[in-house]
Amino acid sequence: MADPYPPGQPNAAAERVIRIQDLHLSFGSNHVIRGFSLDLHRGENVMVLGRSGSGKSVLIKCIVRLLRPDSGRIEVLGQDMLALDQDALDHLRVKIGFLFQSSALYDSMTVQENLEFPLRRHWIATTPGEADALVGEVLAAVGLSETRNLYPSELSGGMKRRIGLARTLILKPEIVLYDEPTTGLDPITGKEIVELILDLQRRYNTSSIIISHDLHVAKLAANRIAVLHGGRNYLEGTYEELRRSEDELMKRFFVFM
Amino acid sequence: MAVKGGSGFRSALTEVGETAQFTARFFRNAFHPRFEWRELIRQCTVNGALTFPLVGITAFIMGLVLTVQSRPTLARFGAESMLPAMVAISMVREIAPVITALICAGKIGSSMGAELGSMRVTEQIDAMEVSGTNPFRYLAVTRIWSTILMLPVLVVLADGISIWASWIGVNLRDTVSWELFYRQVFDSLEYSDLIPAFIKSFFFGLAIGVVGCYKGFTTKKGTEGVGRSAHSAVVTASLLIFILDLLVVQITDLLGFT
């Protein structure tokens, strides 16, 4: 299957699935997000690049309303995230996948139970056979069919990340948010995860925001990169545009590339 | 020092306020149409059935010890025949509810604080939330309901076991038939003994569930925080049990349940 939307070719004409406008968030006197704005279009991979502690994870948690911003607007699939009541929010969240940096697998459940949990909760699979088939499909997609009966503590870091990805995709979300998908992994496993992300994006036709400080991820996966610096969208462009930029911060970022 | 004491007092008040808000949130969600029946049954099994052996052993020992230790004093006044009534009223009105609640605060409260705390710091609660499952309804409401429902059941079982143990205690020295002992116990017990004890056990269950879940949900600072949540869930719930006991005794006294 041909790339619907290969990296490096932003598609501004496509439907907008996320719009973040003038977002502000403080923790006490620490003003972490200071007027951040960003758009994500259908089929697009946007990477939010920033230094450690720049507020990348805070930003991504605001998008799914795990954190509530002080001001600003977040629109997801045309709905104002900050104005939704709890039931409408839960309903919308099913369409947004979230891969945690720690994978956040339920450690008291096996891999099979981890994957069945969201299916059971949303009545997507009503019989054990249906659930089994869907679990088998996503496990095959991430290449870990043999791990069904293992517990998260029996998996390696890379396997946990893959199962986390499978759990995210089992609800067939339209948007996937990745929080540092390769952090803590060796370069080979990291590259495999990025390839898996791209493969799954093609297969499930998702739009993604990837939070990372890893320029290899940016090069391989991002159609567009937004640099989060000083709490705002400091600079935006393709990998090549940012690499050639004369901006001092960008030169420091690309010093080893 | 004054500043430190002041901030400690302020944070204690903040925690009381937050616990009250958490309790109010429980009541707002307690009768939600999308109730988690399956998880409630699982929690009732875990919190009820698995705590029962500990409660049963403790109730047996309490009933036996109370009987053996009370006998000499009653014998001095020639009132040994009052032993079944004395043990039954003591156990049913006060000892069984409070001891059962304290055991549950230790076992269930600490396990809730640690389990939910660990889920909080490893982002499992966040993962549940972003997948469109309300973690408060799924994790907290079901756990709190399970302690509210299971505590009275455990208290009634503890009552029964302690009275049976008391009969064994009496028979260590004398020979009294179970029928006679049983009749003496139930002749002495009135509804005014049973009802306040039963009602307060619901409140004890509410306190254990709310405190355990609140401590777990608000865990911070990694694994150290998980330990602190488990520990403070036990301490706070135990203290609340004594405060509630005092309040219920005063209220039932005013209502004439004496």
The coarse overall form of chain B would be elongated
**CATH fold topology of the largest domain in chain A:** Rossmann fold
What count of structural domains of chain A?
A: 2
Hey, roughly how much beta strand do the residues of chain A contain? Answer: 15-25%
Total count of helical runs of at least 4 residues of chain B: 9
Short characterization:
The complex is a heterodimer of chains A (257) and B (258). Chain A has 257 residues and is of the alpha/beta class.
Explain what this protein looks like in three dimensions:
The complex is a heterodimer of chains A (257) and B (258). In chain A, helix 4 packs across helix 5, helix 5 packs parallel to helix 6 and helix 6 packs parallel to helix 7. In chain A, 41% of the residues are buried. In chain A, strands 6-7-8-3-9-10 form a six-stranded mixed β-sheet, with helices on both faces. Helix content of chain A is 35%, strand content 25%. Chain A is built from nine helices and ten strands. Chain A folds into two domains: 161 residues, P-loop containing nucleotide triphosphate hydrolases (Rossmann fold, 3-Layer(aba) Sandwich), CATH 3.40.50; 64 residues. The N terminus of chain A is likely disordered. With 257 residues, chain A is an alpha/beta fold. With 258 residues, chain B is mainly α. Chain B has one domain. Chains A and B meet through helix 2 and helix 3 of A and helix 5 of B.
